[in-house]
Amino acid sequence: MTLFKKVVRVLSTSCFLWFIAHGLAHAITSPAPHHPTEYEKNWASNLSQDIQRDFKNYFKSDNLLILGDTFLAAGVLANTGLDRAFRNHWQTDLRTKSTDHVLAIPRTIGGLSYYYGPLFLISMGVGHLREHTALGNVVYNWGYRSLRTFLIGGIQQVFLTNLLGGGRPKNNQDSKWQPFRYQTGVSGHAFYGAIPLLTAAMMSDPPLLKYGLYAFSVLPGVSRINGDCHYLSQVILGWTLAFLSARSVYQSDSERQPAFQMGVYPKSDGAMLGGQLKF
After folding, report:
1. pLDDT tens-digit profile of 144-162?
2. CA distances (Å), 146 to each of 64, 129, 166, 185, 212, in order?
3. DSSP result, 70-99
4. Distance between CA atoms of 188 and 172, rounded to whole angstroms?
5. Which range marks the domain in which residue 84 is found?
6. Helix-helix angle 134-164:232-256, to 10 degrees
7. What are phi and psi of 224, to 5 degrees?
8. How many domains in the chain?
9. Is residue 235 in a domain?
């Protein structure tokens, strides 16, 4: 391995670990939205009500406008030679062993689709057990919001990936929309890999952490372009479904949160009680 490749791998891994560490530090030292014990006792009923609210927000005009524009752009890419031209350019001029190494972690994150459901449920359970701590509240809310995003967006991803019928570039299949011909019309890696990162981004306040997570959420999809497993249009659709679903969940929870919230801030000589007033 050349020195350049070693430096690239070390830097990419270090940045990823830094985001995780910084996020945990922020979670521990910042007030989190509190979830009362009664909420978990009626979790099935509340989950049903929240998903209904999420879908209501999902189908608001601004979301539908973004979704429509995305489908228009993806349709042009898929049903012309643009998808194929971009794929050829990436594989010929941009893909190297360095990009394979750098995108290895995002590719793994995107490939955990079958494990995310249980992971989100485990996060809710652990967070519930530690609900008296700020970190426990953050873990619970991250798991609960991610699970709802997973459910409302996953239905669309599974349906559309079959309906659009686009194929894989590495199998020399066309990206053209051919209903139900192939089962790769929407990138699953781009969708599932973005969910935990987008949810964390929308729960974060520090700009560097927030926008760093937003940027990283794109990389699972980029890793599939790099690996010649999906076309650009399929990755765009996958990430957009995740973003709009996470955005709808965020809007639902923002509507439910009280106008005034209390929080405990740790200090070197003890703790400080603070409050936040939403206007």
Report:
1. 999 999 999 999 999 999 9
2. 21, 18, 27, 23, 18
3. HHHHHHHHHTSSHHHHHHHHIIIII--HHH
4. 19
5. 43-256
6. 140
7. -75, -30
8. 1
9. yes
Provide the Cα torsion 181, 182, 185, 188; round to 10°: 150
Query: Sign of the C-alpha dihedral, residues 158, 186, 119, 249?
Result: negative
pLDDT at position 234, please? 95
**Listed residue (33, 265, 30) closest to 142, CA to CA:** 33
C-alpha closest to that of 175 among 52, 85, 101: 85
In a domain, 17, yes or no: no
What is the pLDDT averaged over residues 122-151?
A: 87
Single pTM value for the model: 0.78
* Sole residue written with tokens 């940027």: 215
Residue 4, phi then psi, degrees to nearest 5 = -60, -45
Q: Is the dihedral of CA 53, 54, 55, 56 positive or negative?
A: positive
Q: How many CA atoms lie within 13 A of 54 on its CB side?
A: 25
| Rounded CA separation 13/108 (Å) | 13
Biggest distance spanned by C-alpha atoms of the chain: 65
DSSP line for 121-156 = HHHHHHHHHTTTSHHHHHHHHHHHHHHHHHHHHHHH
Confidence at residue 22, expressed as pLDDT on a 0 to 100 scale: 47
- Is 106 domain-assigned? yes
Alpha-carbon separation of residue 16 from 7, 20, 101, 102, 111 (angstroms): 14, 7, 13, 11, 17
Any domain includes 209: yes
Closest CA to 166 of 236, 260, 64, 248: 236
